[in-house]
Amino acid sequence: MAGPDIKAPAYRTIPIIPALQPDSMAHLKCYVAKENIQEALGFKGKLSDNWQETHDAVIARMGELLKKYRSLRVFMDSCVHCGSCTDKCHNFIGTGDPKNMPVARQDLLRSVYRRYFTVAGKLFPALVGARDLTREVLDEWYNYFWQCTECRRCSVFCPYGIDTAEITMAARELLDFVGYGQKYSNEIIGKVHKIGNNLGLPGPALLDTLQGLEEDVKDETGFDVRFPLDVYGAEVLFVTPSADFFAEPHIESTIGYGKVFHAAGISWTMSTKASEAGNFGMFIGSYDQLRKVAMRVREAALELGVKRIVVGECGHAWRVAYAFWNTLTGIGAGAKDPFAIELQKQLDHRYKQPTHICEFTWDLIQQGRLKFDKEANDHRIITFHDSCNVARGSRMGDYAGGQFEIPRHVIRAVANNFHDMAPETIGEKTFCCGGGGGVLNDELIELRVKGALPRMEALQRVVDDHGVNFMALICAICKAQFSKVVPYYGFKSGMIGGVHQLVSTAIKLGNEQ
Amino acid sequence: MNILIAILFYAATAIFVIGLMIKIVEFARTPAPLLIPTTPGPTTASGVVFRMFREVVFFESLFKGSLWIWAFGAMFHFGLALVVVRHLRYFVEPVWTWVAILQPFGMYAGFLMVAGLGGLMARRILVERIRYISTPSDHLMLVLLLLIGLTGLGMKFFMHTDIVAVKAFFIGLMCGDIQPLPVHPGLYIHLLSVAVLMIVFPFSKLLHAPGIFFSPTRNQIDNPREKRHIAPWAAALEAKN
Q: From CA B111, how far away is CA B124, in angstroms rounded?
């Protein structure tokens, strides 16, 4: 494990753009998925020994993707190399490797696109930066498309809205297609299909964990807060990332969710089948996998007869739930086709389907159905990190930007001390934690530490200026990533926690119902 | 020579129009299976029109991204727009009033355009990151545009040409009646560069012009929970099970 040798880069006194350090991250390569992992997802097991075969398969598949995804088609053609995105990626800022500049990352694929799919690239490759697909190019794709966290920060600043995440997803799909998948993501997706969640926690273990949690909360508070599993006829199906069942600090938020349902007196259940909100199908760019993983939630909702679906604290899961579930599974409203209507007629459309837990809690707060002892959080001076997929890939509430305000409203309702980080590092311009998009593995720890630099700089400033000692999050990956990397920057892991951890601390369980 | 230039312009126009149409049809017909607007984004169709307007006219995202590129890019594009309007006088008789009114502005816009191009070129050469991502074609595109701008300005301010004859040539060209062009090296370079620009348009990064209108992160409505959005090929998956 590379862990202990990695050093955090120094803070930039003035946030200047780093000088280019070509190939400084070329050595970083995550483990390749074994044949059984690949084949379980319907991908080719491993790269063919015959290069020509791989070459032809990649090009043919690229042609198919160009016909399936307008994003890819338009983004391949539209870039003018203006440079607006070049200094926006946290992984470039942290590493200085020019191939971590969004446009350069895109060009790894675009150069091949030009060579095989454009007249200019076929006739004058050198002139337009087109190149043949070689084994070296494929390896370069593997290295650098697995150094993108699909956080979409670059897309905010692109005059044509080119989203590198879309291109990364396409590249990863091409790699999977020819048997060059990433072990970490593909193994996890396999676990979801086989067991029901990313962590491979089987039903009985889950039940045991939740019962243990009930006992802990009883001991601590004296109240019978329930954490129900597979209860037919509950009003709410609650879907959360599986890390919430036992990882630290995730579990603290889980306790918070339970307390909110308890205090509001709303019946709820979790599901063994849908014991995972995360959906790594998005990370690998596979519509098929994205859909298969999401279908579990639809099936659970139908089986349990629930009226509402609420999603726990998880960034990419919320993007998938908010933006993709209606498309993939019919969880939402406004459908006209029988497939989606089957579920939609069951759901209660007085509520947004699906609902984010922060929307859910904020709604209850506004109705006066939750009471808090805000002083209980007075030992904390809090800041909030906008998770990338929530910030730039989803929404909360009825208006654009609700995803920034609602979590802050919740924090301010349960705590007295709150300070935002610098405006250019939050909201739509928020920096990725450095662990999203399928890079949260040990092999990439060097990238994770370095990529966290811009967020750590912003955090350091509020720590210095306001004495901040708690960074609140609504993402399981952010929680895991920060808990691991903040010590490299001299912070304590304990300063990382969920928004519903704060809710949990302050909520009064006795006064209501 | 006149005939050659006439043929060149017929060909360039055909390639420009047909090439662009093919590309636009291709963009339009490729499905967008998932809703991927960069949020916070508009939640209504009129909101999307307004967002697109801000992007196309004010380069809103670029403004957020880099003031330098925005400033040079805006100078070039606004300058070019006015210059193009000014050139309409070579194609219509009588000249439309609004085109006539904009004539004097169009003249200065030529300087604005060239200055913007100069700035973009300087960035491309001087800034290490942008130099790294630049291909030869990126530089040549700027050279081509500069050539057009400089020869145009040259003819306006230094080496005049017979613009009445130029107008007669283009009016004639539009109805298949080839008139003589004045013999003028600046004019030849100017026209040749414009023809080259039209020819490379559908095959180059100039496709950003139609591309922006089809960019899903900018042209989609952020309403996934309210409306089901599904592409035909994705709906076909549902039919299977």
A: 20
